[in-house]
């Protein structure tokens, strides 16, 4: 299909002239061009092979990939990419003439027609013409990942994705995400339902390793009406190894860093009837001050403290290790009075850096592990917070869709 509108014709002529002279309006295209950059042997007469990122009639095409073109055994001589109503999309050729890409991303939910002409070294020509429709905004899905790019975290921090739509093809989505460590530790994914996917090694990350998360979800179909668009790489660092063990029966928490005990802190854990979970828990959030209202965790009317200092979240359900200024000094190290949290002695306002609550806050990273033991309660559920370490490696691997 050829458009005869003057603006379209001028745009096509401009693109064609640029392609014929081997110039580029925005510089080299990049990966697509490099993939096709092998030279054509002198005197070769192969018919050019035009490669497109969409098929004729395809729907839900990626707005970042749909209009891209690469050619093997030849060079591009003309590209026309236009919407159904004749609006021509500007594009740029690579310096080699073997790749072409739109300038910017395409519009969502839009029908396009793409025509490509290429010529081989022996004079043979090839033409491809397709029509496709890009993915609609309402048909996208997104995965929110933690930790973020550039973060420094503790050795227990998993890579956790939360998707905004239920994923039906979990294998396709998981296979499009690659997590690797500079330590060489194998990393495996585990699905908690249809919206959450966590990755971790068999044992805690090696201290001072670098974790790379390659997210290649662009164009991946996660379910009907759920197509990915993310294509980025996240890197974060693991800090020193710190694992703290809170013993609810002795009312002590031992803080061990890189194999050496830093401190043993007196604590108060959950009282009878509101005991603290046992198990390996990962600090997922640090708050210098927060409100804790019993109504949000099933203890309506029992407490509402507007300024809990030095709070570090251990579970989604409301377990924290935090400073406690309202309990008598005598309870720390001697009795359990909390509603399920691990409490450390502190002052109102949290302004005294010598208090145990302030010291532990200042010496902890998101991703550090706090192990609770000898509490009169069961082990915390692996999906209650970032606590997949409370699952055997066999069970963890069984939850992978790969």
Key structural traits:
Transpep_catalytic_dom; mainly beta; Immunoglobulin-like; elongated; 402 residues; nine-stranded mixed β-sheet; acyltransferase activity; L,D-transpeptidase catalytic domain-like; 3 domains
Task: Describe it.
- Strand 4 and strand 5 (99-102) form a beta hairpin.
- It contains five helices and 27 strands.
- The chain has a nine-stranded mixed sheet with strand order 22-27-19-20-21-26-25-24-23. The chain has a four-stranded antiparallel sheet with strand order 1-2-5-4. Strands 9-11-14-13 form a four-stranded antiparallel sheet.
- The chain has three domains: 6-135, Immunoglobulin-like (Sandwich); 140-239, Immunoglobulin-like (Sandwich); 242-390, L,D-transpeptidase catalytic domain-like (Beta Barrel), CATH 2.40.440.10.
- The longest helix is centred in the first third of the chain and has 16 residues, at 6-21.
- By secondary structure, the chain is mainly beta.
- One of its GO terms (molecular function) is acyltransferase activity.
- Residues 242-373 form the L,D-TPase catalytic domain.
- One of its GO terms (biological process) is peptidoglycan-protein cross-linking.
């Amino acid at each position: 299909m050829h458009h005869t509108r003057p603006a379209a014709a001028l745009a096509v002529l401009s693109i064609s002239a640029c392609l014929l002279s081997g110039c580029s309006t925005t510089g080299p295209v990049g990966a697509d061009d490099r993939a096709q950059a092998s030279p054509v042997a002198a005197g070769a007469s192969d018919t050019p092979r035009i490669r497109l990122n969409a098929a004729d009639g395809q729907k839900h095409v990626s707005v970042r990939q749909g209009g891209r073109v690469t050619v093997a055994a030849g060079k591009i001589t003309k590209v026309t990419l236009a919407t159904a109503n004749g609006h021509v999309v500007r594009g740029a050729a690579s310096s080699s003439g073997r790749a072409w890409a739109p300038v910017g991303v395409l519009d969502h939910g839009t029908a396009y027609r793409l025509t490509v002409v290429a010529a081989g070294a022996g004079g043979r020509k090839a033409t491809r013409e397709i029509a496709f429709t890009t993915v609609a905004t309402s048909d996208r899905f997104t995965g929110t990942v933690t930790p973020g790019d550039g973060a420094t975290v503790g050795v227990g921090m998993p890579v956790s994705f939360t998707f905004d739509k239920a994923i039906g093809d979990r294998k396709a989505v998981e296979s499009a995400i690659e997590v690797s460590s500079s330590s060489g530790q194998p990393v495996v994914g585990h699905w908690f339902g249809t919206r959450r996917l966590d990755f971790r090694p068999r044992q805690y990350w090696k201290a001072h390793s670098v974790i790379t998360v390659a997210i290649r979800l662009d164009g991946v179909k996660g379910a009907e009406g759920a197509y990915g668009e993310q294509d980025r790489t996240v890197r974060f660092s693991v800090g020193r190894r710190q694992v703290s063990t809170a013993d609810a029966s002795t009312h002590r928490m031992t803080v061990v860093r890189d194999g050496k005990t830093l401190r043993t802190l007196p604590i108060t854990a959950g009282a009878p009837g509101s005991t603290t979970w046992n198990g390996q828990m990962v600090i997922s959030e640090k708050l210098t001050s927060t409100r804790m209202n019993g109504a949000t965790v099933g203890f309506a009317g029992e407490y509402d403290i507007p300024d809990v200092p030095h709070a570090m979240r251990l579970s989604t359900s409301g377990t924290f290790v935090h400073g406690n200024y309202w309990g008598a000094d005598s309870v720390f190290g001697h009795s359990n009075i909390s509603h399920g949290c691990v409490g450390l002695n502190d002052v109102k306002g949290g302004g005294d850096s010598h208090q145990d609550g302030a010291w532990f806050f200042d010496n902890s990273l998101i991703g550090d592990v706090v192990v609770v033991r000898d509490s009169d309660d069961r082990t915390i559920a692996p999906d209650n917070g970032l606590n997949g370490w409370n699952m055997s490696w066999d069970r963890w691997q069984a939850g992978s869709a790969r």
